[in-house]
Design a protein that fits this description.
The structure is a single chain. By secondary structure, this protein is mostly helical. Helix content is 77%, strand content 0%. The protein has helices spanning 2-26, 42-53, 55-72, 79-97, 103-125, 133-149, 152-162. Helix 3 runs antiparallel to helix 4 (79-97) and helix 5 packs antiparallel against helix 6. The longest helix is centred in the first third of the chain and has 25 residues, at 2-26. The mean pLDDT is 87.
Length: 163
């Protein structure tokens, strides 16, 4: 009975956190955009779940989050599902095999994951369009990746204090 209570509160906190991040990302109720950067805080959520619970729950969180993100994003055709799923698996494997479970590792993984997500997004959807694509990456995608990585701080708290 104690085991069910132990897993109920972190799971509930993460579900609530993902719902809040989803609405902050895809609605204009409280816009997160600052200047040219439009963050994707769901990356930090997937990183936090994989960080504390391993690659299988990271895979599941990335899969479900990606499906919901692709449902409302235009012209992505499963891009969010695949990338968030791969981020969840990669972070879970790296933490279980090579890294310590501290805030510095979480911040590093969130930054690398956000940079990888936005670089692949830029490569697939913008790099072939022509024009000055490097400037577009540096003005829009790079600040968005840095801003997205900062969401690891609120995403880290449920796993750290409720586990």
């Amino acid at each position: 009975m104690n085991n069910k209570t132990k897993t109920f509160w972190p799971a509930t906190a993460y579900v609530i956190m993902f719902i809040i991040m989803y609405f902050l990302t895809y609605t204009s109720v409280l816009p997160l955009k600052i200047g040219n950067s439009a963050p994707m805080p769901l990356i930090a959520g997937v990183v936090a779940v994989a960080f504390f619970y391993g690659e299988w729950l990271g895979f599941t969180a990335g899969l479900i989050t990606g499906i919901f993100a692709d449902a409302v994003a235009a012209n992505t055709v499963c891009f969010n599902m695949v990338t968030l799923m791969l981020i969840g698996v990669a972070v879970g494997l790296l933490v279980n095999k090579y890294l310590n479970k501290n805030i510095y590792s979480a911040l590093l993984l969130a930054a690398v994951s956000a940079m990888a997500y936005f670089f692949v997004h830029w490569l697939i959807f913008n790099a072939a369009s022509g024009g000055n694509v490097i400037t577009h990456f540096l003005l829009y995608y790079f600040p968005s990746a840095i801003y997205s990585a900062l969401f690891i701080f609120p995403a880290y708290l449920p796993g750290r204090y409720l586990k």
